[in-house]
């Protein structure tokens, strides 16, 4: 048996960076006390989700990955607790900006950075104003406890990303997230489709999926929580509600999952030579 215990942290966030870091650190400690080895926090947790509107003042929140104070804090916490923590942050890289994750291993070392590949642009989620599309490609890291792939929020809607990370050897897929109400249409509730698409990734790739969302009302933008952990069958083995903070923890036998993936035959029966259409934008050119 090769056991990996993962956690999804669902949190209410203020617009006070120091308070958020202190609060999330305590939730990380709680997850650790419950046995978690890999702990996923919400997307852009340093403050309120600022991308709901286009304001140039918010570029001041970005920081280079080198000597980043939030990353340094969680490096120390990861080292203390011997846990893996993907840290979502607003990255400044020269004259451009990215929505990024720094992957911190259990010894407190940052293994590298993933920059969000798919950038949304719509009412309440105007991220193209702030972020360039990522240039890292999809990333899978060999951590102390297993090989993990990370997508960021909008990435989670794209089956190509999940399949690519699984092909690259990921044993679990992690998705830091910030999603909730749609200000242009109060009747639109995306919670169920949001969960279902990632459940589809779990089933199609025979892999656990962990999604960590924020929760609560941030100046009228209401985040619907519903963080979850799905097993390779697509069952929601742990799920949070829409209103409260939560620390979800679940253990997986990675060796058993590897056998199950082989038995299902999805990767055996793939036909990559037939998939060239996926390299086109419109199915033609």
TrEMBL record:
Specify whether Hydrolase is a keyword of the entry.
Answer: yes
* Residues of the CN hydrolase domain: 4-254
Sorted alphabetically, the keyword list is: Hydrolase
Q: Which InterPro entries match?
A: Aliph_Amidase/BUP (IPR050345), C-N_Hydrolase (IPR003010), C-N_Hydrolase_sf (IPR036526), N-carbamoylputrescine_amidase (IPR017755)
Q: Which GO terms describe its biological process?
A: putrescine biosynthetic process from arginine
A single GO molecular-function term is: N-carbamoylputrescine amidase activity
Question: Transmembrane residues, as ranges?
Answer: none
Keyword Transport in the entry? The reply is no
NCBIfam families noted in UniProt = agmatine_aguB (TIGR03381)
Please give the family membership noted in the entry. Belongs to the carbon-nitrogen hydrolase superfamily.
PANTHER family xref list: BETA-UREIDOPROPIONASE, NITRILASE C965.09-RELATED
Protein's name according to its UniProt entry: N-carbamoylputrescine amidase
What is the native source organism of this protein? Parathermosynechococcus lividus PCC 6715
């Amino acid at each position: 048996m090769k056991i990996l215990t993962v956690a999804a942290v669902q949190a209410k966030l203020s617009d006070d960076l120091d308070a958020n870091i202190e609060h999330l650190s305590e939730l990380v400690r709680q997850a650790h006390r419950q046995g978690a080895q890999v702990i996923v926090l919400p997307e852009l947790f340093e403050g309120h989700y600022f991308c709901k509107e286009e304001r140039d003042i918010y570029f001041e929140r970005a920081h280079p990955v080198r000597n980043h104070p939030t990353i340094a804090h969680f490096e120390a916490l990861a080292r203390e607790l011997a846990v893996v923590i993907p840290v979502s942050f607003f990255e400044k890289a020269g004259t451009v900006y990215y929505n990024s994750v720094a992957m911190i291993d259990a010894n407190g070392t940052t293994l590298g950075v993933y920059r969000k590949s798919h950038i949304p642009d719509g009412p309440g989620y105007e991220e193209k104003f702030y972020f360039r599309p990522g240039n890292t490609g999809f990333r899978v890291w060999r951590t102390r406890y297993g090989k993990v792939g990370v997508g960021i929020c909008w990435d989670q809607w794209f089956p190509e990303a999940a399949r690519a990370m699984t092909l690259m050897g990921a044993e679990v897929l992690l998705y830091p997230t910030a999603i909730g109400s749609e200000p242009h249409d109060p009747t639109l509730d995306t919670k169920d489709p949001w969960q279902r698409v990632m459940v589809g990734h779990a089933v199609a790739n025979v892999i656990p999926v962990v999604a960590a969302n924020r929760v609560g009302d941030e100046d009228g933008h209401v985040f619907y929580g519903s963080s979850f952990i799905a097993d390779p069958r697509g069952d929601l083995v742990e799920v949070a509600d829409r209103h409260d903070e939560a620390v979800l923890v679940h253990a997986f036998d990675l060796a058993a999952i590897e056998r199950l993936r082989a038995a299902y035959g999805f990767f055996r029966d793939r036909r990559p030579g037939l998939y060239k259409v996926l390299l086109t934008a419109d199915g033609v050119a």
